[in-house]
Design brief:
By secondary structure, the protein is α+β, with helices and mostly antiparallel strands. It has 8 helices and 10 strands. Strand 3 and strand 4 form a beta hairpin.
Length: 424
């Protein structure tokens, strides 16, 4: 996509040229004023079968079909594009005029951030018609510079490269942007600070929520009947390791939003992210409270209720957290998929997500097969004062070889048990 802008008097003329699509392959083309789809005013255009042009000004609060703005602050009108020799034969150009921002006219803001989108599916003629999902998207940074004004200052000349071009505030033609402003296919490939922040945020929260937390839960589900250290492993993974990683990854989310200059809490992913981190913090607090309460009860005597309601609630919240984590990571991938640069990688991320979403439930459900063994151990140690959640009875270890400690040394088993308490 090539975008050319010419400022004349107090009006900007934008020309959007799809360099590789003929008219019959173009449904609609959109240009948005902002850094993201959400809350960015858009001008959407399409050619009708009768040769007329439809123009619709829209906006959206979420990543969904934009709705029509009945009374926009700046009214756009379609104009006939002025084609020049640089336009490829198999290309399509739509143009519109819109009042210029005052900051552009007085020279206080000479840069403009834009987004664009294209779909091959043509809507109906009415401006409020339903729009099919875009097939291509991108970002463009327009750099308006004062250049020598040509004799015919009403004609805008674009650069026939994929870099975006912009017109002069005095009505001159566009000059080629500097090296820092160059983009390929209308999208920034410089992996700047914002993109690095987004990638770091995605990696840290995905690693924390989808790897460390499930690992901690599986340590509890599988390890409690095998080793007395299971609880230590459980809390170290879920709090000591996952806590700092998740906290850092979560903080990078609002930082990325601030860097992009878009509103906070304006879509489901951002809102659920806030709810999620508070739910995780509450789960950590509940786990610590349950453990401390068990220690206090064990100090007074045998723990007669190994599964009080709060323990069951702790398990249920933990499982809901994992399910919520898969949903949240998936919604983040959906946002990444809308970026041209990330789209090829996101296809692989989706596959990894789907495989992991099948493995984790399978491992947990398989671990439920150990419940009878766990209950037997708890009944056998009903009179024991044990705050470690590891009721591994010596009697059970000898009666059932399946309950031997995972870390038991072979030298400890010589086949002869001399202790009188084990004699019949």
């Amino acid at each position: 996509m090539c975008v050319n802008a010419t400022v004349e008097n107090e009006t900007v003329t934008y020309s959007l040229t799809s360099m590789t699509h003929e008219l019959e392959d173009v449904g609609w083309i959109a240009l948005g004023f902002g850094e993201a789809m959400v809350h960015s005013p858009m001008v959407i255009m399409w050619k009708n079968d009768d040769g007329s042009m439809s123009l619709s000004q829209r906006i959206t609060r979420f990543y969904s079909e934009p709705h029509v703005v009945k009374d926009p602050s700046r009214i756009a009108t379609s104009v006939e594009p002025k084609l020049t020799a640089w336009h490829p034969t198999k290309s399509t150009t739509f143009s519109f005029q819109i009042p210029a921002h005052q900051s552009l006219l007085n020279g206080t803001a000479m840069r403009e951030t834009l987004i664009w989108a294209l779909s091959p599916i043509r809507p109906d003629k009415a401006p409020e018609s339903r729009l099919a999902r875009h097939f291509e998207i991108g970002h463009i940074n327009m750099n308006f510079k004062t250049v020598a004004m040509p004799e015919d200052h009403t004609t805008s000349t674009a650069v026939s490269s994929p870099s975006p071009t912009a017109g002069s505030p005095n009505g001159g033609s566009a000059s080629k942007p500097s090296e820092d402003d160059e983009h390929e296919d209308g999208h920034d490939h410089d992996h700047g600070g914002h993109e690095k922040t987004v990638n770091a945020h995605a990696f840290l929260v995905s690693f924390g929520f989808l790897f460390l937390l499930p690992l901690g839960i599986l340590a509890g589900r599988w390890g409690r009947t095998i080793s007395p250290v299971w609880f230590k492993v459980h809390w170290i993974i879920n709090m000591a390791l996952a806590g700092p990683i998740i906290a850092l990854g979560w903080v990078l989310g609002p930082i990325a939003v601030y860097q992009a200059g878009v509103p906070h809490l304006n879509d489901a992913h951002k809102i659920c992210g806030v709810i999620f981190v508070f739910l995780y913090a509450g789960q950590l607090w509940l786990g610590r409270y349950i453990h401390q309460r068990r220690i206090e009860l064990a100090a007074k005597g045998p723990v007669t209720k190994p599964h009080p309601p709060l323990n069951v609630l702790h398990v249920v919240i933990g499982l809901l957290l994992i399910a919520f984590a898969f949903f949240q990571v998936r919604s983040g991938l959906d946002k990444l998929a809308q970026e041209d640069d990330e789209a090829p990688s996101v296809k692989w991320y989706y596959k990894v997500w789907a495989i992991w979403a099948a493995i984790i439930p399978f491992l947990y459900l398989a671990g439920l097969s150990l419940l009878p063994r766990q209950f037997r151990q708890e009944r056998a140690n009903a009179d024991a004062s044990d705050s470690t959640y590891a009721p591994l009875s010596d009697d059970i270890q000898l009666a059932e070889s399946s309950t031997r400690l995972l870390f038991e040394s072979p030298e400890d088993d010589d086949g002869d048990v001399e202790d009188p308490k084990y004699k019949k």
